[in-house]
Design brief:
Layout (H helix, E strand, L loop, with lengths): L1 E9 L5 E10 L4 E5 L6 H8 L7 E6 L2 E2 L5 H8 L2 E4 L11 H10 L5 H14 L15 H13 L5 E5 L7 H16 L3 E5 L3 H6 L4 E5 L2 E5 L1
Parallel strand pairs: 3-8, 3-9, 6-7, 7-8
Antiparallel strand pairs: 1-2, 1-4, 4-5, 9-10
Helix pairs in contact: 3-4, 3-5
Amino acid sequence: MIRLENVALRYGRGPEILRDVNFHLRPGSLHFLTGPSGSGKTSLLRLLFMSIQPTRGLIHLFGQNVTRITPSRRADLRRRIGIVFQDFRLLDHLSTWENVALPLRVTGKKPGDYQEDVTDLLQWVGLGERMYALSPVLSGGEKQRAAIARAVIGKPELLLADEPTGNVDPQMARRLLRLFIELNRLGTSVIIATHDHQLMQQFQAPRLELHDGRIHQVG
């Protein structure tokens, strides 16, 4: 599913945030991504989503070298990935329901084909009464749950989640993590970047630990 070979990343003329990163993840795996603040967790997820390119090294996703593909092919591969950003990136002019349904809409599916699925998922994440509210009036926790629902609605082959439980209470955090685990059981590969050590202790999974720009696999 994922293979990185001697990957390094720097922004502009600054120091390397990531250097000599090497690891591979098999299809259907689930990993926590940990490390101190500023260690490069978000940057690593951005590399895997292909929104930025490495300074050097090779990244393989789905069996393809994505450092050497056309923009159109990159866009095609992104449709196989669900991602939860820390800043949510919901569209302000769309309702919660429309934001969550967007990944299905862009694939050409008709609303009648997914209306029930989107509604059920929003109710499951506690947004049943907010599904027609516009994004700007949602709280931070509500936006986060909407962003998670949008990332998983299409049952992606790879799910990247950047601090997905940072703005919700512990009970909702466990509920959302169970959603990720259920997706993983259905075959989705999952990487969850988190600082929540208590949550990681409740759901045992291997860890990718970032320190000094390098990654270590634990467990």
